[in-house]
Amino acid sequence: MAADVSQFVGKTISLLSLERKAEIEETKSLQENVSPKELQRRGVCLLKLRIRSRRTGDIVGFSWLNSNQAANDISSGIVSRVSQTALTVAFDETADTLTFDDDGPFKLIKLANDVTHKRIKSALNTLTKYREGPAPHLIDVLFGNVPPGAPLQIKPFVEGGEMPCIFFNDSLDDSQRQAVRFALCQREVAIVHGPPGTGKTTTVVEIIVQAVKNLKMKVLACAPSNFAVDNMVEKLIKGKVK
């Protein structure tokens, strides 16, 4: 069944707002009901900090050490640099407008990060505005408004073709090799699906290596987390892909 892009965007933004609200409430509840020492043990708070200098990441709240109330926060800022002995926070306010005693002590607590929320919302709103280039057709395919194009007949990747496909990773099993061939022959979109631990990332890496080295493509590889990106990059380094 075809989906309406505007309805999808509206519903998703509504759900995103609920998620954001819940994240803020959870952070506020932790700050008000959990002791600073316990928050530090959980890795979301740093205690007994003192100011070394003032100059005009993660979002953090800056407050007096003995305050458990979010309302008593002095300010919030972004962690811009971390070393073994110091942590640098960038504030929106100038040094003159921040009212606190340099002697401290203070605490920093990790807050709900609105950067990701804003970027997702911006991307959703942009989704309804694409009118030029390849994006409109791809969006129509993804939302079921038009059927996908016929598979490309790329000789090395056609199943049962005359020219055999040479895989860079010779440890791929049959299902992984089939997924690589399938993905590289699709005009718009291909889905590699499977339970955890079945080698999906390994398969995607082979697809990227084949696309870059054999088909001379430029590939933008994305993942939903930093860990997933790191995992993919580590495997790509072994394939000597730039």
TrEMBL record:
The keyword Transmembrane helix does not apply. It comes from the Eukaryota. Keywords: Cytoplasm, DNA-binding, Nucleus. The keyword Cytoplasm applies. GO terms for molecular function: 5'-3' DNA helicase activity; DNA binding; RNA binding. This is DNA helicase. It holds the Pfam family AAA_11. Its EC number is 3.6.4.12. It is an enzyme of class 3 (hydrolase). One of its GO terms (cellular component) is nucleus. SUPFAM superfamilies: P-loop containing nucleoside triphosphate hydrolases. It is found in: Cytoplasm; Nucleus. Residues 172-238 form the DNA2/NAM7 helicase helicase domain.
